[in-house]
Amino acid sequence: MAGDSPNLMFTPSRKGNNPYNPDPTSDTITVKVGMPDFNDGSDIFTVQKSVLYNDDQFRGGCWINGDRTVHLRAKPEDFKTYMTWLYTRRLPEHIADPKLDTESNLDWLPTSYGLARKVGDPRYQDVLISRMIECARRIESFPNISFVASLYDVTEGLAHTPDILGRDLMIDIWTWKCRPEWQDIDYFAEADYMEFSEHLISALIAHRNASPEELVEPWASSQADRYLVGATQDE
Q: How many CB atoms lie within 10 A of CB 201?
């Protein structure tokens, strides 16, 4: 993997290390990434089409300027993480180990989920959803309201099922972890959290008569697959 040069070119793994074996001689796409505005070119990436889940869908989540450069409104760091995963099927070393996750170092996760949805890569969406499920298993306070708000923000206005699976997971985790003292939490009435509050209240009402045997942890093996797009199971 190259350094932080203006034209960041990623070298594919050797055959045998990467089950996808991207073709280094295949056509490339130049992607300029910025949030909210594009800079002077320091965050330009060159990606082989052969590593993308769907070239047309990828382009559909971006737009193409007169110079045929694809523009993507996203955080450059999130795109670097995605590129690392595309070429190695591993997350970058500093976030690779879920055992090191804490409530305070997961800001990359909802915005990366938004990126995966935007570029139309269900495989990457599934990786991120699985990471959220792992966090729910290990971190009692996950997801906090800021995490939920961030995930709601990157999926705003979406109705297609694969795009809102992340929202479904947030609602189900909060429903499972419901505590009586929540009725006194003021932020549920704040405008930034109103949509989530409405969804959560609906879920709590729907499950109010359920017995403990009927309620299954959202992260249980029998439940987890319902939040995945399903692409990972086809590989």
A: 12
Say which residues have a Cβ less than 8 Å from residue 1's Cβ, sequence separation at least 6. Answer: 10, 11, 84, 87
- First-to-final CA distance of the chain: 25
Strands 70-73 and 63-64: antiparallel
The residues near 54 (Cβ < 8 Å, ≥ 6 apart) are 120, 121
Instruction: Report residue 202 as tokens.
Output: 């609906």
CATH classification of 1-90 is 3.30.710, yes or no? Answer: yes
Report the predicted TM-score, pTM, of the whole model to 2 decimal places: 0.79
Residues of the chain with CATH 3.30.710: 1-90
Over the stretch 102-129, which tens digit does the pLDDT of each residue have? Answer: 888 999 999 999 999 888 888 899 999 9
CA–CA separation, 54 and 34 (whole Å)? 22
For 3, other C-beta atoms within 10 Å of its C-beta total: 5
Residues 146-198: pLDDT tens digits?
899 999 988 876 555 555 789 989 998 988 887 665 655 666 667 678 888 88
Task: Assess whether the previous peptide bond of 122 is cis (omega < 30° from 0).
Answer: no
Mean pLDDT for 70-97 is 90
